[in-house]
Write a structure and sequence with these properties.
With 242 residues, the chain is of the alpha/beta class. The protein has 2 domains: 1-80 and 158-242, P-loop containing nucleotide triphosphate hydrolases (Rossmann fold, 3-Layer(aba) Sandwich); 89-156, no CATH class. The chain has 9 helices and 10 strands. It has helices at 43-51, 73-78, 96-106, 115-125, 141-154, 171-186, 198-204, 222-227, 229-234; strands at residues 5-14, 17-27, 32-36, 58-63, 66-67, 81-83, 159-163, 190-194, 207-212, 215-220.
Length: 242
């Protein structure tokens, strides 16, 4: 079966800083993949190249076997690639429900159907139904992170990119968010999740890759990857023989 996403020799540098160094990565349809790495490892740039916000200097991005490297972020969104941002970016002057309606109307290849009902269903799944009429700019951090996820779901994604959605949350809020991510994945959406909170990733993904210096330095079963000496040395700052 053709992978839902393939990165083939993807490279990117900003001046002398290499943030992606010939990355090859294949993601299966229906997979839940975690991405770990220290600050500056190139994780968010990687998402930018997948979503279209950042143009690679070399290499190709393929969705369902089709080269989408030159397509804009709106085109990719309509093809089924949705993302959340590390710092939530809602339409602050609109209410929560209106934020979803905009995503559903303009972020899909075919906006047909009962958009209003579908947005209400997504609000309910994401725990936002009780604040549907509240202005998005007034939400708490957890609520804004849930709204980021809800807006992405309103585009009907087949590939969902999550950028540190657990950052800044309490332990209880983090557990609730992990449960929501697992529910979304169980519905058939392929997930790629960047996160610094390791236990959240391990609870939600079946495969983990580690980035460092723009290169993939580990790929495999999450607990085995986290326990490897190389990851401990590079990501945790521990000597390899510790």
């Amino acid at each position: 079966m053709t992978p839902i996403l393939q990165l083939a020799g993807v490279s990117k540098r900003f001046g002398a800083v290499v943030v992606a160094d010939g990355i090859d990565l294949s993601i299966a349809r229906g997979e839940a993949l975690g991405v770990l790495g220290p600050n500056g490892a190139g994780k968010t740039t990687l998402f930018g190249m997948i979503s279209g916000a950042v143009a690679p200097d070399a290499g190709r991005v393929l969705l369902d076997g089709v080269d989408i490297t030159s397509l804009s972020p709106p085109r990719r969104c309509r093809l089924g690639v949705a993302r959340s941002f590390q710092i939530p970016q809602p339409f602050g002057g609109l209410n929560v429900y209106e934020n979803l309606l905009v995503a559903a109307e303009f972020g899909r290849a075919e906006p047909g159907g009962d958009l209003a009902r579908e947005c209400v269903d997504i609000l309910d799944r994401c725990g936002l139904a009780d604040i549907a009429n509240r202005r998005a700019g007034s939400l708490t951090l957890l609520q804004r992170k849930r709204l980021e996820l809800a807006r992405a779901l309103a585009t009907r994604p087949k590939l969902l990119l999550l950028d540190e959605v657990a950052g800044g949350l309490t332990e209880e809020e983090c557990h609730a968010l992990v449960a929501l991510v697992r529910e979304v994945h169980a519905s058939g959406v392929t997930i790629v999740w960047i996160e610094h909170i390791v236990h959240a990733l391990i609870a939600a993904v079946s495969r983990l890759v580690v980035l460092n210096g723009g290169a993939l330095i580990a790929d495999g079963e999450p607990r085995a990857v986290v326990a490897s000496p190389r990851v401990a040395e590079i990501y945790m700052g521990l000597p390899a023989d510790a």
